[in-house]
User: Fold these one by one.
Assistant:
Number 1:
Amino acid sequence: MGGIRDPVGPQLVLGGGQNQNPWNFGIVFTASVSPSSPPGNFTWVQLITNDVFTNTPAGGGAAIKCYPPENPAVDVFPGLDTAYPYPVPPTGTTQNQTENDNPSDPLDGNSYKQEARTFSASMYVMWTPTAANGCNASSCTIPVPLGYVNWHFAGTAKYASGTWTLSSGSGAGYNFVVANSPSSYPGWVNWVEYGGPLVCQ
Amino acid sequence: MKAIAVAVCLGTVLFLVATGKAQPSKAASVAVTAAHSLVRTGEDVYVHVTLTNNSKQAVVIEFRSPLCDYTVEVRDSAGNLAPDTDSKSKSDCSHPHPSGADGFVRLKPNESTTGTISVSMFSDLSRTGEYSVQVGWREPKELGGVVVKSNTVKVTVAP
């Protein structure tokens, strides 16, 4: 049994967030299949390929690099983002589904006067055919990769006079890469849980 | 051959997250089904979790990490709680942390959304046997903010 998170305070977020505009998503992924396709379901999996925070101390001095707790490990990337499968319930129908992501970073004005984040990831979509009637074992059907999209963003927030402001932000998503071999399955060497505070060096 | 299209849009903005005090409510419900009722030792156990908005207002739900978005209670056939995983034991849900996966789902009145979570993230299911799984989820503050419990499902872990 565990607790349930309750975020507080200002955050640097890709997208609008819940309190401002829930439809100003950071990034949206949409997948569709032909209505005549055999029955099945999409499964989404995201891999983190880079995630670095550059924070400037409030008291002055050089900026420091910070990472999710898993990052200092050797060969951390690509890392599974948070959970398998992607932990946000997809919206839409079986034949036409969407996912969204709005990575966030709580801002700490007591410690830093500027915080910046550089993030990149690959979102995979897979298709799991419906198992035969009466077959309930995990071996009955397996997900098949359809492809992935690489994407990234960067943002910087500055703290002055008790207020955080966004000083820069950019991002892009790239073309869908079609899976064409067994090696097209998403593979990761670590699990980026995002379950604890950043580690700064 | 399946046709697939992926559309992408991006935007950046800074916003403030506010908090509120939870009030009792039964405006939401949670139902679980086992993704597979039979799994082999060493495989992860998954359940499908369906959240339903039973209220008369639309709500926006944020999902970040299953370890903090849900509670999962796993008991063996003798009724003993399965031990927490290291990840569950170390997870800090009381302080905000940077997120990777961080998504929103909007539910109109009487709408549902279904996601899949790994029970093996929460509990050690390495021993063979039959387990019962129950999921808890805190409904949005607009609906009361109480933790709503699901039905219980059985999963067998076989050699």
Number 2:
Amino acid sequence: MKNNIILFKLALMLTLISCSDDFLVKTDPTNLVEDNFYQTETHIEQAVNGVYSQLQGIISNQWQYNEFITDNTTLHFNIPNRGQGPALEAIEYWNINASTGNINNLYNSIYQAMVNINTTLGHLQDATFDETAVQKFESELKFLRAYYYFHLVQYFGDVIIITEPVDSPSSAWTFERQPIEDVYALIESDLKDAVSGAHDYDAPAGRVTKGAALSLLGKVYLTKKEYDDAIQTLDQVLLMDYELLMSYADVFDPQNKNHKESIFDVQFQGGNELGEHSNFIYTFAPRESVGAVIDFSGENGGGWNIPTLDIIDLYEVDDLRKEVSLNEGYTSLDDEWVPVPYITKYHHKHSERGQTDDNWPVLRYADVLLMLAEAINEELGPTVDAYDYLNQVRTRAGLDDLNNLNQDTFRDAVLQERRIELAFENHRWFDLKRTNTPEELAQFLNAYGETARSNPTTPRGSIPFGVSDYVFQPHEALFPIPANQILINNELTQNPGY
Amino acid sequence: MTDKYKGILYKTLLLSALFTLLLSYSVSAQVDTVNGTVMDAQSDETLPGVNISIKGTTSGTSTDLDGTYSLNIQSLSDTLVFSYIGYQTLEIPVDGRTYIDATLTQQAFLGEEMVVVGYGTQRRSDITSAVSVIDITDVGERPITTASSLLQGQAAGVVVRQTTGTPGQEMEINIRGIGSLGAGSEPLYVIDGFPVGTSMGQNINPTDIESITVLKDAASTAIYGARGSNGVIQITTKLADMDEVSISFNATSGVQNIPNSRRTPMMNGVEFSQFKKESFMDKIRNFEGREPDIDEVPMSFRYPEETQYSTDWMNEILNQNASFQNYNMTVGAGSGSIRSLVSVGYTNQQGAVIETGFERFNARANLNGDINDNISVGWNLAGSFSREEYAPTSGRDAIIGSAMWADPREPVFNDDGSYNAYVGGNDGIFGTPNLVMELTEMDRNRNTADLTSNGYLQISFLNNFQFKSSVNASIVNGRQKEFRPSYLAGRGFDSPPPREAYQNESHNETVKTSTDQLLTYTKSIGSHDITTLAGFSAQEETWKRLSASGNEYPDDIVRFLNVAETVDAGSSEESWSLLAYFGRFNYAFQDKYLLSATYRQEGSSRFGTNNKWGNFPAASLGWRISEETFIPDFTWLTDLMLRGSWGITGNNNIGNYTSFSSMAPSNYVLGGNYVTGQVLSSFGNPDLGWEQSNEVNFGMDLALFESKMTLTAEYYRKITTDMLLPVRIPVISGFQNTFSNIGEIENKGLEFNLGYRTSVNNFNIRTNFNIGFNRNKVLDIGGDNDEIRNGGLYGPNNVSVPGRPIGMLHGFKMLGIFNTQEEIDAAPTQSGAHPGVYIYEDTNGDGEISYDTEDMVEIGNPHPNFVWGFNLGGDFKKFDLSLMITGAQGYDLYRQIEKTSLNMDGVFNLAQVAENRWRSADNPGNGYIATSDGWQWQREANSRYVYDASHAWLKNLTLGYTFSGTNNIMNDIRLYASADNLLLITSYPGNNPEVNQLGGINPGVDDETYPVPRTLSLGAVINF
């Protein structure tokens, strides 16, 4: 018996020693960790879903960098609270510097999404499940990677290209910014891969399809002024089942989401407790509107992304799009007219406070038509086709066809049409950058700035403008690389002028 | 415990006491007298004052001046025990003789006892590293609930703080300073060879403890590898004494009170109304420059003397004469091949705050025995159950803080006898729940049940070898429940009732197992003594939790989740494991040159895959100079040893899964359907490892005058590197920061332990004075200007920067109070300042005090210059007396609560001293309390809130008297009276100078916590 005990103990000891490595392996049973994830098709699918989901946060803040910074929108000036300066007002008034918090957020959020794309793509290399499924996942991920780099390169110029996850903290210091051309090369190659493996038109709504990949690739060519490629690429989209909806209002109506005009939307869902709702109008409605705009008692808006008098004045009489896109003011609960304009494209009835059902349109057919009109005009002048595409959009808006334009006036007409048709959909900044050199952009914006200073859209009380408010310098066409990234890695270069 | 159970317990105790008395009357007569002389073995001189007792009793006598004695004995088969300071104790069986001479041999010094060290025991005199033995017998019969109290004031460098008076709460113990910035500084507790973690738990019965040793330096703790860097506390529980059967019963009962001196005098109803009125009128005087009309003053405080109620909320929530009870019964059977000791204990400590308390049942059985000459076994089994009624008491938003600031002009009860449920909430005063009502009406309790088993089998073979295999296991079950009925106002500000009722309930289970296999080889060849140890250890711990919360209860009667309208539930699990191989080599030559070396290789599941295993070497040397022939044979010099040690230890408290990249759900909508998604939420670091400490220690042990006087001195320097801290990384990695092993801190210091014991006639005295000086310094945090800051403009601010100690107090330097506008104009700009606010120093000299942390500087040091303890024990005939004083000198506390108790807005009740505030240039107050005219330039973190907390605290005073037994059944009874926390000498205004509210690397903050009561108790120990 005694011997048995001893033998048992010795056996126990030996067992422990022999399986020592297993004994020291502990994974977190309560939370998923990378080491036990990315193994099966379900995991990869969830990882891809996760990548999609990060679009929600990024798109919800993008108005700052693509509309708010331009002549399209401004802010509902907050007279008593001047604390927003460094974060948001710097963007509106073109006072951005390397420490501007929201530029930092923009940069961070994109790279934080990138790591999930790269990690999932990496694991997809070793995937053993159905090859078509692998290809589809790869196409979706590459589209989104291209989408993000396309944004980064337009915002920041040269950027760090990262296509694989870093394997240890220290290797995060070994990357340098790469020239714009190299970034575009990656974007093009990713998009071409995305086109070849993409879902068809009838894929579940929200997924990246071939149409989306072609539309984005067309936009990349257009931006690079490779008009012939742009035309050929975008022409393929025309052959698909997309069409303009009869009613402009239907384009944004959540009842009607993911319709025939929509090519790629960021998906949101309201009306339940699942947390996938949007809340754009809560940011965009006037402050102190206490339930008069958002139909919940006492609800105020943020007063951000307020349509400027400049864009309001631009709408042609009879333009059906105006009332769908914005209101010039609202009637307060005390029955008084408050002349603070606000965006209505994303303002729809919803059942739960703070939880709207609105999607955000990223690519839609009207955009493709206008891109084609622009590309053809640049390549061949205002051809019949170019007029056709432009006038299709105008007709739906209840406007007369345009004709008798030369290449320059046609270019201006397309740009104006884009401004109105795609108003508040985060196109304006990139449209202005694409069609202007930095110097032209500065000239254009400063002209707008002067009118904005003399006739602000919302009252400022007695608070004067700062000297540098609404003064745009050509170098500001590119955002600065966030200061704290340079602080951490002082090898990182800054854009000129900052 | 229900009253019914209490009743049964009392009856049982009463019955056993009666039984005892009855038995003790069945006296048996003395039979004989023994005479003799006692001599020194070396000198053959007779020895006066030698104690002679009958073994197993306390009856005895001592030798007279001629060294002779005469003693009545009850049986000629008794054994006599001869003991004398500085001599080895001698036992002589009477064996029918009536004349017995004895010769006593001098002890070399007090070093023969065996001391528990890592994975074994060592003769005290052979120890060459810094090890403190806690003298438990000297601690006396204190009214304590937590065993951690036993360490108070006992060893230099072991800082024990009672940070709050919460019943049952463990002391905060820190060995040789704050040893880490990122992974905690608590020592490892090892109970009967089982490393249980960084807390000894609330459930050990102090009466069961046989010995406590504190391993302080790396050479002694390196054998515990990656858990050794903050020191190790070794606790062993009692075994039955050899060849003895004994029953010991002790009972202590006492009362606890918060002395008035430890309470902050707050304004009563009239005084507060008066303040409100004056504040209102002063604003008009100082800002509008006119004398206000009495009719302008709001009615509710226009006539302060007419204030209807005056409630001292603190008084209302204090439980005067809160009872303390403790009972223990220990039965030891030390004869035969299997010896057993069984103990049961019950402790019940009511809180000094009403409706709080701690209650515990303990049971333990320790068995050990010999199966044959070569094989021995042991098995300890201990179980306990504790029940705690608790309340949130830390900080101004919790019960104690609220009791200070609640509006005194409101009653506890309405005129109809119902509770006044909502206090304040008008006149701009923050509303708070009625504190008496909250404490009474809320259910908040926590139960902990645990069971621990330690078993071993030991085999001796081939003369020199010994193999010991042990298995330890423990299971701890915790349950916590909290219900807040709808009729209570909400905790926090301005939440009047009724509110949604809610409940939280959780259940935790921790299972710990470990096994050690130890092989020892001992050999003496001539003057060479060798002991070697080779060992293997494995340990695993798993923690599981199930928790649920409910909201919206249909009534407040049924307080269970099943009636809640909404229920949220969750569960989780965590686990870690470690494996270690280790060895120790001890070598002694002629007891003069001593060497000890240890080595441990440890692997842990917590470390990253590239860093799974760590190595922890250590070595120490001792040189017993007093044995050298070149040292003259001074009679006064008993022993002198110099020693030095070095070792590397680790700290593995880095979280269980920190090295992994974890995923977090991030969901989306595809095809109109909600879909589950996952994204990476943290950056894995496969290189992640333990914090590492590198420590050297030099020590001296000196014993003089036949060991009557002992002195131990230590110097140490410990450098801790590779601390687990978040570091910023380029965001292109996808993350803004990750945990990394960086940074460096230093702790160095001196420790002295001076002991003196003597015996004059029947008068024995033992004293011990210990003092520790620790200096800590951050050497590096991973960047040139990097700092770890906790806090902001309004403080408290603890800031750790390279070159300075950890967590220094930061804030503006307050220079005084602006008396006039001219003074303001002349001083550096303080935007918006008006007369009556504090003057801050423009430390960066830019002419402006910017309203941020820029002008803030170090304003206080929360680390004491030195911490000391003094113990005195004495007995004279049958009286015994012991006292313990602890103290700490030269450190600061940031009295955060004064932001509330001296908040001049009048939104809280104020401390009475607020009457000395600045009111006008002609009435400037005491110069330390700002005006009630505003708030800016008053409540920012500044030096005005820093107080010196140096103190000396008479922690315990005990007086006892022992009645000798008169028969074979009962040996003796000792009765004692004891006072804990009797006298506090300090200038610190708060209730407890040992407070450490934030803890860790944010020391020295006091936002008011559960006060520490003074306990007066009476007790008895009966030995059978």
